[in-house]
TrEMBL record:
<dbReference type="Pfam" id="PF02540">
    <property type="entry name" value="NAD_synthase"/>
</dbReference>
<dbReference type="InterPro" id="IPR014729">
    <property type="entry name" value="Rossmann-like_a/b/a_fold"/>
</dbReference>
<dbReference type="GO" id="GO:0008795">
    <property type="term" value="F:NAD+ synthase activity"/>
</dbReference>
<dbReference type="InterPro" id="IPR014445">
    <property type="entry name" value="Gln-dep_NAD_synthase"/>
</dbReference>
<comment type="function">
    <text>Catalyzes the ATP-dependent amidation of deamido-NAD to form NAD. Uses L-glutamine as a nitrogen source.</text>
</comment>
<feature type="active site" description="Nucleophile; for glutaminase activity">
    <location>
        <position position="146"/>
    </location>
</feature>
<dbReference type="Pfam" id="PF00795">
    <property type="entry name" value="CN_hydrolase"/>
</dbReference>
<feature type="binding site">
    <location>
        <position position="116"/>
    </location>
    <ligand>
        <name>L-glutamine</name>
    </ligand>
</feature>
<comment type="similarity">
    <text>Belongs to the NAD synthetase family.</text>
</comment>
<comment type="similarity">
    <text>In the C-terminal section; belongs to the NAD synthetase family.</text>
</comment>
<feature type="active site" description="Proton acceptor; for glutaminase activity">
    <location>
        <position position="44"/>
    </location>
</feature>
<dbReference type="GO" id="GO:0000257">
    <property type="term" value="F:nitrilase activity"/>
</dbReference>
<feature type="domain" description="CN hydrolase">
    <location>
        <begin position="4"/>
        <end position="242"/>
    </location>
</feature>
<dbReference type="GO" id="GO:0005737">
    <property type="term" value="C:cytoplasm"/>
</dbReference>
<feature type="binding site">
    <location>
        <position position="178"/>
    </location>
    <ligand>
        <name>L-glutamine</name>
    </ligand>
</feature>
<feature type="binding site">
    <location>
        <position position="394"/>
    </location>
    <ligand>
        <name>ATP</name>
    </ligand>
</feature>
<dbReference type="InterPro" id="IPR022310">
    <property type="entry name" value="NAD/GMP_synthase"/>
</dbReference>
Amino acid sequence: MAKLRVALAQFDFAVGAVAANAAKVGELIARARAGGAALVAFPELTLSGYPPEDLLLRPSFLAACASELATLAAASHGVAALVGHPYSEGEVFNAASLLRDGKVDCTAHKQALPNYGVFDDKRYFRPGHASVTTMIDGVSVGLLICEDVWQPEPAAQAAAAGAELLVVINASPWDERKQAEREAVLAARARETGCAIAYLNLVGGQDEVVYDGGSLLVDGDGMVAARAPAFVDALLWAGFDPATRRWSADDWPVAADPSLEATLYAALVRGTRDYIDKNAFSGVLLGLSGGIDSALTLALAVDALGASRVTAVMMPTRYTSQLSLDGARAQAQRQGVDYHVIDIEPTCQSFVAALAPAFAGKAADTTEENLQSRTRGVMLMALSNKHGKLLLATGNKSEMAVGYCTLYGDMCGAYAPLKDVYKTVVYRLARWRNGAGSGENNAAGRAISDFRLPIPPEVIDRPPSAELRDNQTDQDSLPPYDELDAILERFIEGEQSQAEIVAQGFDADVVRRVVRLVLLNEFKRRQSAPGPRVTTRAFGRERRYPITSGWH
């Protein structure tokens, strides 16, 4: 029997852009037909984008999706197209329809509805109750949707109905552990059923979630036959041999650097680019302090948007060191961005003077430090308003976790690229970016030509400091970041108790202090900017603790 020629459309389909998504589907169907595909598959909820959230509660939105599906079906000739979409018949289903011969041939409804982590499917959808199989060029194909393949029953139903191949369309978000988990699940389903699997995933950033693509071909014995690179838009071609239940990939792109740092950096770049572009901002601006967080944020912004769309602003006070001034200037020059220096010392002093009568009899404390941060926030927001550029916040996950950030100060911003990146990982990414940027592997040390590096080594090497008072370092207020992040990961991602963390060798007083800070600062995180989710437990959409709580 001849091989079944399949095309997998690993592309971005934007939430709410129903007409544009349908037009892209039509173009890709034409490409698949011209390339001789018998089947072209598209990601989960292609027409609506994923996740459409409460757009699914609007009848007009559902009607628009149905109308575009009908138009695509009428034009479907010469190739079968599997398209994800919301389907309403009194109740709403997460559906995948096979379009061929000018009509909707069959429709599968997602059976397993995830309601954990970033997923909220049970709020919007009713579950399907049976797997759908269909014949395509003599091959029996089971049609599954995302979570269906993570449970044994839907795949087993399809196999019992005679499926030789499972085509699974997905909107599966990326995190640092996800690809290994996917491969383990797909191998288990293949071995249980004997079916080969085509796993197609969405790519692109949507608010706080980033989809990586990373599509997979798995043979009937559970072995991975091909892996698509993460964060690459591509029409992936493959041939399936039903006699052996094996795949052959046709010139799939290969990741230039498969390391975790490279993939994580690509996730942050893609999330930032898509947030800015999908919301039609002309560019971004950020406060450049001479520290590592703003330095990495600047590099991400330039890689996402290009230097011409990025503005950096240094806002010194009396406490700003010459090292910070020099480091910020060097970064801006190396990245080629629009750069401004605005001295905020006079503005800060005017605030202090205006407040002096109300502050009479009270010693200076963090109030005056926060005034500096809030002055910077006011300046940056004014520049954002005047120039129409979106403000990026530069804080990291370690700071957000323990509240080492100022409301209406350094927390100002509409998007926070490092929101889900621990401080220790910020250092790793900065060193990786310098290596990638110079064309040399500099992750373990400095490059020979430091002047070429996007992040000056002295910025990476210096002790982190907010520079809001004389000789200040972060470690005046926090444990060393290696220790802090290790505790935070156990408490946040691991959901471990204080006793469990202490039992692993951490100082009990430090653990109690860190956990107390995490719980006390939920109110700050609720007011923080969105940022790309890249860990298994991100603040915001995923980790939702009560602000007011008696649990300690």
